[in-house]
Amino acid sequence: MTDIERIHVPASPPARVQKAMPAPFRRPSINLGAPLEKRVWRNTLACDLAIGDTVPGVGRVYKVDETTYLPEGRWVIQVEGGLGNRREFSGEEQVLAFVVAQ
Fold first, then answer.
1. 54, 102, 45: which is closest to 77 by C-alpha?
2. pLDDT tens-digit profile of 73-101?
3. Cα angle 25-27-29, degrees, rounded to a multiple of 5
4. Cβ contacts of residue 41 below 8 Å, gap of 6+?
5. Among 18, 75, 97, 100, which residue has the fewest nearby CB atoms (within 10 Å)?
6. Rounded distance between C-alpha atoms, residue 5 and residue 86, angstroms
7. CATH number for the 38-100 domain, one of 3.60.40.10, 3.30.420.40, 2.30.30.30, 3.40.50.170?
8. Hey, CA dihedral for 53, 99, 74, 67, is it positive or negative?
């Protein structure tokens, strides 16, 4: 064999496992005081929409107004969401919405 110098390389120490996260990575937890409500996508009547529901094209609902036009007998539900998105539905119209599961 050739004259190759063999040097002993010590093994690296085992990795340490920290039990707590270092201070810069700790974040305070937020407790809203109530458990979160489970929500599901469901076809529902426009008259059953409530504040907090989510409707495609409107977003999260912040305001619901019911209006009845007596001479015509029309029942109109006006839904207003974030960023001023508004939409009118007939009272009996089915709407896809993200509502509280029952």
1. 45
2. 788 999 999 888 999 998 889 999 999 98
3. 155
4. 96, 97, 98
5. 18
6. 81
7. 2.30.30.30
8. negative
60: pLDDT confidence band, cut at 50, 70 and 90?
very high
CB atoms within 10 A of CB 18: 6
Provide the edge-to-edge strand list for the sheet that holds 94-100: 39-45, 94-100, 54-55, 59-69, 74-81, 86-90
| Identity of the residue numbered 86 | R
Residue with tokens 């040097």: 7
> Length of the chain, please?
102
